């Protein structure tokens, strides 16, 4: 069993980061150089530098966002779970966040309205899905 | 900017490659030959990279599983010593299924192996978490089983990944790459189940158990073998024996034994059996949809299904099934609201089956199949 840090998979390699920022820096230099060269009247070289600069910026930004997206995708998102509590006598209903120890049909705190025993009647999570109509 | 673009355009128009056109030709031929001779290898590297990406995710999931299991044991069980070593050992446990060259009696052999495994797991958890009560032990056992499954999935994928890299065989890496999306869906479902099990939240698989719990709530309940409860509930003028695994701890019970006990107690005088379980939906079907059919609706290794079928065959008892449809991801993750709503629809369907298939005064058995985690009675 590996004893590596549990979040080793979520770390961005410092080498990759260094390379991304190096390319970004070089691309920005190319863009600045392009304006200087254009000022000197060498339009062709300026054009090439501009092209290289834009491509470099686009590429490094894309790789940086992709790396970040990969890490975000790795995270396990805990869904929000709600507990519904109902009063058997007066049907008073309250909904709260799930707490450890909750279970369906557990008797909990007395009713705010009639002071009778309240019961957990539902523990569920709501999933918001995009509406897709299958053919 | 516009001036530069115009200048470049003019140059290209005037000299459409000119004396450098051979460079393009060389590049074209180079690409042609590279892809002709190394195309398959390039394709393989792309596949390896894809599997590697998923492997990272699986590693993260199994590490999280291990971390959550250890944290929960420390929090609930309050052990005197560090449980990490014992947890790591638990994650590596395996079960060898019985030999089936001579299939006669294999069910009983399998049942014995599963019993031994269950006792062993429970004993291990008790040692890891001495302060945990029975419900918490069941939940911890489920948490550890999920962590163990994630560990196993990771190891299998890593095995094929490394084997593919070592042998550079397209077919080794291809077979894992093709089923990877399905494996990842399953792994993601287990990863989201970790918290549910450690907190004791009801999961999608418990839909059947919830149906039974709703029917039996408020009636006298007694325990029956093994890890099950039963209540005698009057429904539409009939007597219904409602069975479910004992909750609220993570427990599926031995449904086959429970059904046999009730049938034997009533000397086979049962008008019908209705089994309710969560079932895998097909893509395009709605979560929480209720469907009705015939047969023993129960999953698992098959021991309980075999026992139920044996019992009903002896007395020729008709068996009906009501299923609540859900996704593979919903099965082990906290119960969705749609499934919860499906439970009420299933109860209506059960009442309809009872009215249509039995007479007043008859006895029926209603079995709510599934994990009772987070579901009392």
List keywords for this structure.
heterodimer; A: 135 residues; alpha+beta; 2 domains; four-stranded antiparallel sheet; 2 helices; 4 strands; rod-shaped; B: 377 residues; alpha/beta; Rossmann fold; 7 strands
Write the layout of secondary structure elements.
The complex is a heterodimer of chains A (135) and B (377).
Chain A: H1 14-39, H2 43-74, E1 81-87, E2 93-97, E3 107-108, E4 118-125
Antiparallel strand pairs in A: 1-2, 1-4, 3-4
Chain B: H1 2-14, H2 21-77, H3 84-91, H4 106-128, H5 134-167, H6 170-199, H7 207-216, E1 221-224, E2 228-235, E3 238-245, H8 255-265, E4 272-280, E5 290-294, H9 303-315, E6 319-326, H10 328-332, H11 337-357, E7 363-368
Parallel strand pairs in B: 3-7, 4-6, 4-7
Antiparallel strand pairs in B: 1-2, 2-3, 5-6
Explain the overall architecture:
The complex is a heterodimer of chains A (135) and B (377). In chain A, a hairpin with a 5-residue loop joins strand 1 (81-87) and strand 2 (93-97). Residues 1-6 of chain A have low confidence and may be disordered. Chain A has a four-stranded antiparallel beta sheet, with no helix packed on it. Chain A folds into two domains: 8-74; 81-125. Helix content of chain A is 43%, strand content 16%. By secondary structure, chain A is of the alpha+beta class. In chain A, helix 1 runs antiparallel to helix 2 (43-74). By secondary structure, chain B is an alpha/beta fold. Chain B folds into two domains: 45-199, no CATH class; 204-368, Rossmann fold, CATH 3.40.50. Chain B is 60% helix and 13% strand. Chain B has helices at residues 2-14, 21-77, 84-91, 106-128, 134-167, 170-199, 207-216, 255-265, 303-315, 328-332, 337-357, and strands at 221-224, 228-235, 238-245, 272-280, 290-294, 319-326, 363-368. In chain B, strands 1-2-3-7-4-6-5 form a seven-stranded mixed beta sheet. In chain B, a hairpin with a 2-residue loop joins strand 2 (228-235) and strand 3. The model of chain B has no long low-confidence stretch (mean pLDDT 89). The chains are: A alpha+beta (135), B alpha/beta (377). The interface between A and B is large, with 36 and 47 residues.
């Amino acid at each position: 069993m590996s004893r590596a840090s549990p979040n080793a998979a979520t770390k961005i390699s410092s080498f990759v980061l260094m390379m991304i920022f190096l390319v970004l820096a070089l691309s920005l230099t190319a863009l600045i150089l392009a304006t200087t060269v254009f000022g000197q009247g060498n339009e062709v070289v300026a054009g090439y530098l501009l092209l290289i600069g834009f491509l470099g910026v686009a590429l490094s930004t894309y790789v940086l966002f992709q790396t970040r997206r990969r890490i975000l995708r790795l995270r396990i998102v805990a869904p929000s779970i709600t507990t519904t509590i109902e009063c058997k006598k007066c049907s008073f209903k309250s909904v709260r966040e799930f707490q450890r120890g909750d279970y369906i049909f557990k008797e909990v705190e007395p009713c705010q309205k009639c002071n009778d025993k309240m019961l957990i009647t539902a523990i569920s999570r709501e999933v918001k899905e995009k509406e897709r109509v299958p053919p | 900017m516009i001036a530069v673009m115009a200048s470049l355009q003019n140059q290209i128009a005037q000299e459409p490659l000119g004396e450098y056109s051979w460079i393009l030709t060389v590049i074209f031929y180079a690409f042609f030959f590279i892809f002709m001779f190394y195309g398959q290898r390039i394709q393989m590297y792309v596949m390896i990279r894809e599997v590697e990406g998923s492997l990272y995710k699986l590693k993260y999931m199994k590490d999280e599983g291990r971390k959550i299991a250890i944290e929960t044991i420390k929090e609930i069980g309050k052990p005197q010593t560090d449980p990490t070593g014992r947890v790591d050992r638990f994650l590596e446990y395996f079960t060898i299924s019985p030999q089936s060259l001579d299939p006669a009696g294999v069910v009983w052999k399998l049942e014995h192996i599963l019993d031994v495994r269950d006792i062993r797991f429970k004993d291990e958890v008790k040692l890891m978490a001495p302060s945990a009560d029975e419900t918490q032990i069941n939940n911890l056992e489920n948490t550890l089983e999920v962590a163990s499954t994630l560990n196993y999935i990771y190891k299998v994928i890593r095995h094929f990944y490394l084997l593919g890299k070592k042998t550079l065989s397209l077919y080794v890496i291809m077979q894992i790459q093709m089923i990877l999306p399905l494996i990842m869906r399953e792994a993601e479902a287990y990863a989201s189940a970790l918290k549910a099990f450690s907190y004791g939240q009801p999961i999608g698989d418990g839909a059947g158990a919830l149906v039974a719990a709703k029917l039996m709530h408020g009636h006298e309940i007694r325990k029956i073998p093994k890890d099950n409860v039963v209540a005698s509930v009057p429904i539409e003028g009939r007597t219904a024996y409602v069975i479910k695994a004992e909750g609220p701890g993570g427990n599926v019970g031995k449904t086959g034994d429970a059904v046999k006990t009730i049938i034997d107690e009533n000397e086979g005088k049962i008008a019908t059996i209705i089994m309710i379980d969560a079932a895998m939906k097909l893509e395009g079907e709605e979560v929480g949809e209720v469907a009705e059919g015939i047969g023993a609706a129960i999953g698992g290794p098959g021991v309980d299904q075999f026992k139920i079928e044996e019992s009903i065959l002896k007395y020729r008892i008709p068996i009906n099934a009501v299923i609540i449809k859900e996704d593979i991801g919903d099965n082990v993750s906290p119960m969705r609201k749609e499934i919860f709503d499906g439970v009420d629809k299933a109860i209506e369907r059960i009442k309809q089956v009872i009215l249509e298939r039995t007479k007043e005064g008859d006895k029926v058995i209603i079995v709510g199949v599934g994990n009772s985690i987070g579901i009392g009675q």
